[in-house]
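hey
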């Protein structure tokens, strides 16, 4: 499995039973010779699954990569200029090392293709929407798909019977409202900038504010884009993008950053619950979701009216996947270790079968 992130390239070799046989991480940009050397040590590779951030409106399921597919993926670079090129560069590197096996694209946007039009449509002129494909695509779909399925297993209830709110909280962060295994709403939109406050991304901002900055402050679109993507979020509020640092600080900037983060997170969880008409399971995954008990605690403390209540000891001590809700709570709260590699493997096998 190949997962090209903003700062790393992760390779995982999985057995047919999903046992992890080999694992190699590279800092981006990865060196071709080192990638070739690592893959040369991977015995018995039958297929390669690639995480591709953006599939646009064309790709709503995994697809085998050929020249025509790759050309269409290149055409989507403008929709995800910070992520798509890294995915395509990783495809070139790994395909050079493994030219004779099938390569499959698995899309972060595909999971959200099931969103109803009420959730996916922006109230913009129809000409714009049709000409440029302006809609809410959503992201982190591979993570949301795996975490939802795994959470259902943890609570021993069939996924088709559950209403879940899945919180993928990492450097990038998004929520998904999942009913019966299908996404019906999410917080990210046309780009991964919409929604929650993130490590260096602003999350949702009044578009009028951005127009004002362009018109009155003379800030050009490239500078706006750079600030929203790389110089906002927690970094802008507290001078660090690392949640671990924030959680041990006691200064006013850190307190404000955490308060803003939790305020947006709680409100967005409630928004997803409204879309579902109720919730059975609240899922936390991603680096922050898995490893920051204080964030889970503070988020849940504001959701008691929805039936969410955690067990403080379970929340503090959880290792691996498990339920940290209070025994008598109406909503289960499940922590799931992110395993996008398992979801990519599942989709790759299903396609090739």
């Amino acid at each position: 499995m190949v997962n090209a992130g903003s700062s790393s390239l992760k390779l995982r070799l999985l057995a047919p039973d999903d046992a992890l046989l080999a694992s190699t991480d590279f800092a981006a940009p990865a060196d071709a010779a080192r990638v070739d050397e690592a893959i040369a040590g991977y015995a018995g590779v039958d297929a390669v699954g690639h995480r591709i951030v953006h599939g646009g409106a064309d790709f709503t399921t995994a697809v085998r990569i050929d020249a025509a597919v790759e050309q269409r993926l290149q055409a989507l670079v403008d929709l995800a200029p910070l992520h798509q090129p890294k995915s395509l560069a990783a495809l070139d590197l790994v395909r050079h090392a493994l030219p004779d096996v099938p390569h499959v694209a698995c899309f972060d946007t595909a999971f959200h293709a099931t969103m109803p039009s009420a959730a996916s449509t922006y109230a913009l002129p129809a000409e714009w929407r049709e000409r440029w494909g302006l809609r809410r695509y959503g992201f982190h779909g591979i993570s949301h798909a795996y975490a939802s399925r795994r959470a259902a297993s943890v609570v021993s209830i069939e996924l088709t019977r559950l209403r879940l709110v899945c919180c993928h909280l990492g450097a990038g962060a998004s929520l998904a409202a999942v009913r019966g295994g299908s996404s019906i709403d999410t917080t990210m939109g046309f780009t991964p900038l919409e929604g929650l406050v993130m490590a260096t991304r602003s999350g949702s901002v009044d578009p009028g504010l951005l127009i004002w900055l362009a018109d009155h402050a003379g800030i050009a679109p490239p500078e706006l884009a750079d600030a929203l993507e790389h110089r906002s979020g927690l970094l802008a509020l507290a001078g660090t993008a690392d949640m671990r640092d924030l959680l041990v600080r006691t200064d006013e900037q850190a307190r404000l950053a955490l308060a803003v983060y939790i305020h947006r997170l709680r409100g967005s969880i409630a928004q997803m619950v409204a879309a579902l008409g109720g919730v059975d399971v609240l899922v936390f995954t991603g680096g922050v979701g898995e490893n920051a008990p204080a964030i889970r605690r503070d988020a849940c403390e504001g959701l008691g009216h929805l039936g969410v209540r955690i067990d403080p000891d379970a929340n503090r001590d959880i290792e691996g996947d498990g339920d940290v809700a209070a025994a008598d709570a109406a909503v289960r709260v499940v922590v799931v270790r992110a395993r996008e590699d398992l979801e990519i493997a599942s989709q790759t096998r299903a396609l090739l079968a």
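The mean pLDDT is 96. The two ends are 17 Å apart (CA to CA).
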